[in-house]
Amino acid sequence: MNVGVFLLLVSVLKTATFPIVSSDPSDEACLTHLSNSFQDSNNKLDDWTKNNFATPCNDSTANLKGATCNNGRIYRLSLNNLSLKGTISPFLSNCTNLQSLDLSSNFLTGPIPPDLQSLVNLAVLNLSSNQLQGQIPPQLTFCAYLNIIDLHNNRLTGPIPQQLGLLIRLSVFDVSNNHLSGPIPASLANRTGNLPRFNSTSFIGNTDLYGYPLPPFKNKGLSVLAIVGIGLGSGLASLVLSFTGVCIWLKVTERKMALEEGKVSNHMPDY
Ligand SMILES: *[C@@H]1O[C@H](CO)[C@@H](O)[C@H](O)[C@H]1NC(C)=O
Ligand SMILES: *[C@@H]1O[C@H](CO)[C@@H](O)[C@H](O)[C@H]1NC(C)=O
Ligand SMILES: *[C@@H]1O[C@H](CO)[C@@H](O)[C@H](O)[C@H]1NC(C)=O
Ligand SMILES: *[C@@H]1O[C@H](CO)[C@@H](O)[C@H](O)[C@H]1NC(C)=O
Ligand SMILES: *[C@@H]1O[C@H](CO)[C@@H](O)[C@H](O)[C@H]1NC(C)=O
Ligand SMILES: *[C@@H]1O[C@H](CO)[C@@H](O)[C@H](O)[C@H]1NC(C)=O
């Protein structure tokens, strides 16, 4: 029997013995936890049921709204604009074949789980237009294939991790309209070589972010200094004023007392 026939037999056996409908314990854990962390108040995810988590993929089509399969594994999740509330489960990291994650335009709160670092195939991360809080996890740097990081319109705080500049495939980076603070990393705004540089559009709408391509450090820092200055200055001024006041008062009373004394001595008969 030659190798060609053997391989043919193997592939025939494979299709015969393995069902088209695939199950994967990792994806099942991912989907189960994710559906628990979402609050789907408008019942937009009505086919996200326990049975479908066990066998989410039927060949390349998924049995779940918003999911796409490849080789029996979930490889894309697009659940944008579904009025979803709740949080993003850290167990999303169990969907280890995920290449594209779009949860944009919902009402999701809580942090971006640092556990997403296990999604080593992730190329697209769109969590824009939610109410996500906390910091941008620097661990996203471990998702080496990331092309797109879109986090605009959220409530993210803290600095932009400069390590994200190490993502050499990054071509879209948008963190505009958040509550981020600190300097804009040159690793993103002024990248070396031929890597795309991200202009002010990527960073605007964060009052405490500063540095190229936004205006340099001034507003907040200086105004804090100014407030301290004004505080110290006015403190000193009021000290000087009250001291002068006390002096004048003392002088006046002294003079008055002297006058009174004089009067008294005037009225007193001399002995
Ligand atoms: C899910 O991920 C967690 C944390 O990475 C891991 O401990 C667990 O074994 C995973 N579960 C499955 C079913 O893969
Ligand atoms: C899988 O898909 C095929 C064709 O689209 C369909 O005939 C079959 O019923 C599906 N199986 C399940 C379990 O959904
Ligand atoms: C979001 O969904 C609502 C209704 O579900 C629809 O009216 C609106 O056009 C959608 N927006 C986008 C940008 O798709
Ligand atoms: C992310 O999703 C929003 C809304 O769903 C969309 O407008 C935006 O273009 C997406 N970002 C990227 C980089 O594709
Ligand atoms: C960008 O980097 C180059 C060299 O690395 C430097 O000369 C230049 O001043 C930087 N531009 C800004 C705006 O920081
Ligand atoms: C920023 O870059 C994008 C594409 O990279 C471009 O469309 C946009 O016009 C630029 N904006 C500014 C203010 O330079």
Automatic annotation (TrEMBL):
Chain coiled-coil ranges: none
Organism lineage string: Eukaryota, Viridiplantae, Streptophyta, Embryophyta, Tracheophyta
Recorded topology in the membrane: Single-pass type I membrane protein
Family of this protein: Belongs to the RLP family.
GO cellular component, one term: plasma membrane
Segments passing through the bilayer: 224-250
Protein name: Leucine-rich repeat-containing N-terminal plant-type domain-containing protein
Domain of life, per lineage: Eukaryota
Location in or out of the cell: Cell membrane
Record-linked InterPro entries: Leu-rich_rpt (IPR001611), LRR_dom_sf (IPR032675)
Keywords from the named record: Cell membrane, Glycoprotein, Leucine-rich repeat, Membrane, Receptor, Repeat, Signal, Transmembrane, Transmembrane helix
Signal peptide: 1-23
